[in-house]
Amino acid sequence: MNLNENYIKLIDEKLRGYTSGITQPLLREAMEYSLFAGGKRIRPLLLIAAADGKIEEALPFACALECIHTYSLIHDDLPALDNDDLRRGVLTSHKKFGEATAILAGDGLLNLAAEIMSGHCSDFLERRNVSAMKEIMLAAGVNGMISGQMDDIFNDFEQNEEAIISMYERKTGRLIIAAVVSGAILSARENVEEIRLAAKKLGEAFQIKDDILDVTSDAAVLGKNVKSDEKNGKNTYVAAFGLEAANERFLKLSEEAVDGFSRIYGEDAYLTKISKNMTNRRV
Amino acid sequence: MNLNENYIKLIDEKLRGYTSGITQPLLREAMEYSLFAGGKRIRPLLLIAAADGKIEEALPFACALECIHTYSLIHDDLPALDNDDLRRGVLTSHKKFGEATAILAGDGLLNLAAEIMSGHCSDFLERRNVSAMKEIMLAAGVNGMISGQMDDIFNDFEQNEEAIISMYERKTGRLIIAAVVSGAILSARENVEEIRLAAKKLGEAFQIKDDILDVTSDAAVLGKNVKSDEKNGKNTYVAAFGLEAANERFLKLSEEAVDGFSRIYGEDAYLTKISKNMTNRRV
Predict the structure, then answer these.
(1) A51 touches B: beta carbon within 8 Å
(2) How does pLDDT run across B122-176, given as a tens digit for each residue?
(3) Cross-chain CB nearest to A23 (options B31, B122, B147)
(4) All domains in chain A, ordered by first residue
């Protein structure tokens, strides 16, 4: 069992511990359905990696982050938003449980993230814990992920590179940045702002790769409908500047990100390796 | 200007301070539309009252609570849930802005609550602050308000008094309890569990009154569609046990709640007065 698998097992056990306490059966079922639908656990793994593998300190925040990511997928898939039927190879929440349950399961996951973190901060009243929670809630928040999602739905950026990159950063980047930065905070790293910069590049590279895969991959491999961005007239880097320019920017950013982590954490550090894997992904 | 109006002014100013920093224009507009649609600010006022009027300490939590309450209304009103067109005399969020924006404005308000509280806890790292945040997030959470909302939508309790009361407590009661208890925590009150008990009675009385008003009031006074519970086949105390039994239970609980606060905070305390007003409301 490699390090990834070991951590994923711990993340899943901890998540299951949180959801097993939910007494409303349908709410619990819907929340667990999406939480355990085969997500790659990229954000929690990044958090643990950036926390130098200090698993006890990192795990509650890693789980909270995965709850937030999962809620955002459930709500994004809703008919009023992206209207997707498939996610990670299975039916989306509203297709499986209906819209009302999907909306509330999403709300439940966002709230659960705050419950986990505020509970942990209450159990261990330490500055680094509260700082990590603040970092994560701001990233998920009204000038973070939710703002990016609004722009993605309502704005047509066309060839405005700056606006697309800003939308990317808020919609996807901020949560990836928060994973790395809150991990760094939890393990009391000193050069947090330098770490943030590398994480920012990783986040953008990750989103560009996502758009590239949407164009070049097929549904069986990707586990969701492909060309959905094109179909939905989405603002993507690929749509605006073509596949070649997207690939170039992706390569540049992912190299810079990996170099950054390599410099700070070391070439063989788990964070450096996981970043390499992330940017090499084919699904 | 009486105490209520003065506090409401402070709450509104503080809320406006939080939302004015939202850079995505439509998100900000939709969040402010619902936040400033003439809500009675009952929960934040209760929190401030239970905090003995310690306004500086109470205000961030009071605002967070109002954000959570407002998000719950936006999502509850959605077509997939209660499908209401009117709220506080004006169009509901999805009628005004469309479903996608309503969903994200709701998400934004829930997240903003956690942003406000974790930011405040980070600025003032004190046990009482983190405890108040935890109390509020748990009340709003998967075994609190969201759980009650699920039960309200999917379960048919018919004549099961215990189940209806449990649903009431989670759906409405928990946030009212959290208002009072977190206020008490913030002002370092000692008898928190006794206060919680009185708040629990107040919360149930408040919800029964809501159901009674739904049957006996008219839309012009109430500012939302009346008989919507009946129309939606909702589980209400009134529907299950009739108006008379509901009135009796309401009177008993509201008296006990006011007595409880009177005993702990004093007869002339703001919390006692506000509880009296709450249970005497006609809208």
Answers:
(1) no
(2) 999 999 999 999 999 999 999 999 999 999 998 877 668 889 999 999 999 999 9
(3) B147
(4) 3-280 (1.10.600.10)
